[in-house]
Amino acid sequence: MPQKVSLQALDYDFGVKALHYSLNGEAEVVEASGAATIQLVPGVTNTVSYYAIDNADNVETARTITVNLDTVPPVTTPVLNGYVGQNGWFTSAVQVALSATDNSSGIARTEYSPDGVNWTVYTAPLNITASGVTTVYYRSVDTNNNTEATKSIAVSIDQAAPVTTAAVSGTLGTNGLYTSAVKVALSGIDTASGIARTEYSVDQTTWTAYVATVDIQTDSTTTIYYRSVDLAGNVEAVKSVTFTIDKTAPFIGSMNPAANAVNVPIASSITIIFSEDISTGGAFAGVALMRGLTKIATLNTVSGNTVTIKPVKLLGKTATYTVTVPAGAVIDAAGNNSAASSFSFTTGRR
Ligand SMILES: [Ca+2]
Ligand SMILES: [Ca+2]
Ligand SMILES: [Ca+2]
Fold first, then answer.
1. Which of 74, 174, 177, 223 sits CB 3.0–4.6 Å from 102 for a disulfide?
2. pTM score, whole prediction
3. What spacing in Å lies between the alpha carbon of 87 and ligand 2's midpoint?
4. How far, in Å, from the CA of 43 to the mean position of ligand 1?
C-alpha cells in the first residue's frame, strides 16, 4: 500500500514555474520546485488534485488521482437468537447471524468455520442445534483484502431436562409392604449443562432441595414426588414413588368374652379382635381353648381383623377356660407376627 504520492512537473520549453496541488479538498499548496511528496491519510480513499504552470504562465488542465489507503480490517459482530435459559445456556436451537462493517473499502466477504481452519463463505444465518457447546469461528475480509483477526463465539444449547431415578430401600415384607423405616435415594443425570438441583415434595407444592437420603420412619403410605432442574433451567416432569411402611405387629384390641369374665354362657364362641386385618400365621394351629390341661375341640377361623374360636360342643358349666394365642398365630398384610397372648374366663350355670 502506498503511503505517499510523489508529483513531478516537467516542461520542455519554458520550464516549470510551480506545481499546485490539493489533498482531499484541502487548501491548495504551491511548490515552486515543481515537485511534491504528499503524505496520504490512512484508512480512507485519498483524492489528490494537481496542475502545473510554466514560466510563460501556461496552466495545465487540472488532474485528479484517487488512492485507496484502506489498511483497516472489517469488524464482524455475531447476533444469537434463541430461547435464553440460565447460566449462559440456550434451551432451544440457536440462529447465529453475522453482520460486518468496514471503515472504508467495504466488505468483500464474511466467513465462518467450525475449527478456525476450514472456512465457508457466510450467506445466511447459521442454525445451531447440537446439544452442548458449539464454537463458531468467524471473520470478514474487506475489498482491499484486509482480513479480520479470527474471532469465535461459544453457543451453549441444552434442550433436554434431567432424568431423576429414585431408589427405595428398607426391609420388604409381604405384599410389597415395608416392615422397617424406608430410605429414598434420588439421583439425577443430565446431558449438556448438568444438574443444578434435585428436589422432592410430599404435596407437590412445597419442594425441598435433595441433599441426602430421605428417611421415612413412621407407619404410613407415603408418596415422594421428585424432579431435577438443570443449569440451563430445564425442569423435569414430576415423577413419584409410593410405598407403605407397616412396622407394627397386629395386637389384640378386645376379646369376647373379656379377660376374667364370669357367668359366660356355655353356648359361647370366643372372638378376638386385632388391631388390623390379619391372616393365619405359621403358629395358627397353636391357637387353643384349654380347660386345665385339657384342650377343647374348637373350629378356629380368621376373618377381617377377627379370630373366632368356636367350640364343637357346649362348654362345661361353672368352669374356667383359658384361651392361648401363641406368637405368630396371625400376621398382618406386611407379614408381621402377632405376639403371644392368653386370657381366661369362667362359665355360668347355663
Ligand atoms: Ca477496511
Ligand atoms: Ca439438560
Ligand atoms: Ca401392622
1. 74
2. 0.74
3. 12
4. 7
